[in-house]
Amino acid sequence: MSLTDILSPSDIAAALRDCQAPDSFSPKKFFQISGMSKKSSSQLKEIFRILDNDQSGFIEEDELKYFLQRFECGARVLTSSETKTFLAAADHDGDGKIGAEEFQEMVQA
């Protein structure tokens, strides 16, 4: 399964266009524009599984910087500042990584 099986390719493209400039990425805005915030819990779990590149059950900081590239291979890498802000916003238990429940809570908040 790929992200375009769950999200509209045109919504993904619009979300990526919105954050092309370095330091312009806003997770909340990206989730809204891409349509993620309207998806069911089971769909969000599948999206998480796709984004969890190493299938560890968590999205770690190293994976997070390539977040946009999981949607489109030519997309930019998140800046260090964007990555740290994204991680801090989602990592509720302070373990330095984002679990499936934390991801779902962030997207649906």
Q: What's the overall geometry?
A: globular
Alpha-carbon distance between the two ends: 25 Å
> What structural category arises from helix and sheet content?
mainly alpha
Mean pLDDT figure: 97
At the fold tier of CATH, the topology name is Recoverin, domain 1
Mind describing the biggest β-sheet?
2 strands, antiparallel
CATH class: Mainly Alpha
Tell me the count of domains.
Answer: 1
The gyration radius over C-alpha positions equals 12 Å
CATH 4th-level superfamily: EF-hand
CATH architecture: Orthogonal Bundle
Q: Which residues sit in consecutive blocks of at least 5 with pLDDT less than 50?
A: none
Helix content: 40-55%
Write the element-wise H/E pattern from the N-terminal end onward: HHHEHHEH
Tally of DSSP β-strands: 2
Proportion of residues in extended strands: 5-15%
Compute the number of helices: 6
Give, in spatial order, the strands making up the sheet with the most strands: 1-2
